[in-house]
Amino acid sequence: MTTPAQQSERRVRQAALERGRHQGGETNENFGRGFAALGQLALDGVQVSARASDLATGRVLFSVDDHVAMPAADIGKVLLLIEVAAQLSDPDRADDGLGELVILDRGAGDAAGAAGIWQHLQAPSLPVADLAALVGASNDNLASNVLLRVVGLEAVRRRAESLGLSKTALLDVVRDQRGPDDAPQLSVGSAQELCWLFTAMARGEVVSPAVSQRVLGWLSLNADLSMVASAFGLVPLAHREPDHGLLLVNLTGTEPGVRSEVGVLRGPRAGVSYTVSMSFADTALAARLEVLDGMRQVGLDLLEYVH
C-alpha cells in the first residue's frame, strides 16, 4: 500500500517531469517515448537529469531537472581534455615543456584500475597527444591521472570557471578507493551546462576553434556506445566518419550507481546536443538494465529527430 509520503514524493517527481516535458514546442510529439521511460525511472527512485537542444537554433527540445548538479563520473574528464588542448595551443606556454610529442612517464602514484587500456600495456611512457587520445577513446583512468599531474587540477578548475561553469567540475584524480578526506566523487555536472559546453565546442567556441576541434577529435574515438548512443546503430570502434548520415561525438561516465552521457549527434535533418544522467541504487542487475534501457529510449527519440 502506498503511503501519503510516497504519494507526495511521486507527485513532486511527476511534476518535475511535466515541467521538462513542456519546454520546447515539439517535446510531447518528438520525445514522448523518452519522457515515459524517464518518468517511470523517477517514480522507481532513480534521480534523473536530462536535456537536449537543437544544435543550429539552440531551442530546448526537452529537459528534466537539467539545473541539478549530478554525480557525473568520468564526464568531468572533458574539462581535463579542454585544458590540455588549451595549453598545447597556447604559444605563451611553449617553454613549459608541454607539447603533443612530449613523453610523459606513468608513476606508482598515478595508478588507477577500471576504465582504460594503458594499465594493460607494456609501454611505461607515452606522448601527451596519445594520452589524450586514450582518455577520449576509453576514459583511460591512468592516462587521465598522468595528464592531470602535469597540467594541474587547479588549472582545470580555473578553465571551467573561465567558461562560466558553476555546476560542472572535475573534483579529483581517479582513485580506486575514496577515503573520508577525498572528494566524494570524481566529477559533477548539470545537464544544462554540459549541453551548452558540447554545443559551444561543436561551434568552435570553447577557448578557440582549434581547441574545440582538438577536443572533439579526441572524443570522436570514444568506444562506449552502451547508453543513449546504443540507439544510433553505429559501430562502437569506428564511427569517426558519417554512417547512414549520422555523426556522433560523445563522452560517457560510469561508476556504481551512476550512468551519464553527453554528446552531439548530427543527422540528415538536424543536429542535437544532449545529456542524460542517472543516479540510482545499483543493487541489482535489473535496476541497472532499466536505467540503460531508459537512456536508450531517449536515444531513439534523438535519432528520430535528427534522421
UniProtKB/TrEMBL annotation:
Record-linked InterPro entries: Beta-lactam/transpept-like, Beta-lactam_cat, Beta-lactam_class-A
One Pfam family here: Beta-lactamase2
Domain of life: Bacteria
Region: Disordered, residue numbers: 1-29
Biological process per Gene Ontology, one example term: response to antibiotic
Record protein name field: Beta-lactamase class A
GO terms assigned for molecular function: beta-lactamase activity
Residue ranges with Basic and acidic residues bias: 8-24
Taxonomic path: Bacteria, Bacillati, Actinomycetota, Actinomycetes, Micrococcales
Ranges for domain Beta-lactamase class A catalytic: 52-278
